[in-house]
Write a structure and sequence with these properties.
Layout (H helix, E strand, L loop, with lengths): L2 H9 L3 H23 L2 H18 L9 H33 L4 H7 L3 H13 L3 H12 L4 H8 L3 H23 L1
Helix pairs in contact: 1-2, 2-3, 2-4, 3-4, 4-6, 6-9, 7-9, 8-9
């Protein structure tokens, strides 16, 4: 059965076809979530959430991309939103030290409070283009190998490396503007 027929059958209410879709894509969704979250229970929760979102949003799937690409995208977005909620403090506190963006002298000069720093980092991260933000988070926070990040993002390893370099440079610029 081709993708179009499968999607149409599901939209027409076929429960067995939706179960078939889950059976086909569940291993990939789980592995992707596991690669982002590094926690089996969280990855299982995300996998369930992804298929609920897929079911609820299937009518809006425009087929510009393949169904698998769309499901990966839903998985990545759901996982990243989960990470934002669960790991916000750890990620935000570690960002400035990871990048070496805020020197000790600048910290003492500016007397940046923890809340102001977190807000600045959050804003700087939000200003990154989505692909840069995703590549940066997966390689620097989740410490995934570039090969795995390339598979998740469906791009080459060289493209991942370039996105991380651009993300680091843009974060530096964004934080310098914000903290100036």
């Amino acid at each position: 059965m081709d993708e179009f027929t499968l999607i149409q059958n599901i939209l027409d209410g076929s429960q067995p076809d939706f179960e078939r879709l889950i059976k086909i894509y569940q291993p990939n969704v789980f592995r992707t979530a596991m690669g982002l979250l590094h926690n089996k229970e969280d990855a299982e929760e995300i996998t369930q959430d992804v298929f609920l979102k897929v079911y609820d949003s299937l009518s809006s799937f425009n087929q510009r991309a393949t169904l698998s690409t769309w499901i990966y995208r839903v998985t990545i977005n759901t996982s990243l939103n989960f990470l934002k909620k669960k790991k916000a403090n750890r990620v935000l506190f570690s960002l400035s030290s990871l990048l070496g963006l805020v020197s000790k002298e600048k910290q003492s000069e500016k007397l940046v409070t923890d809340k102001e720093e977190k807000d600045a980092i959050r804003k700087a991260m939000q200003e990154l283009p989505e692909k840069q933000r995703l590549a940066f988070v997966l390689t620097k926070y989740e410490e995934l190998p570039q090969k795995q990040v390339a598979e998740i993002m469906q791009i080459s390893e060289g493209a991942v490396e370039q996105l991380v370099i651009r993300a680091r440079n843009n974060l530096r610029k964004n934080l310098e503007k914000i903290m100036a």
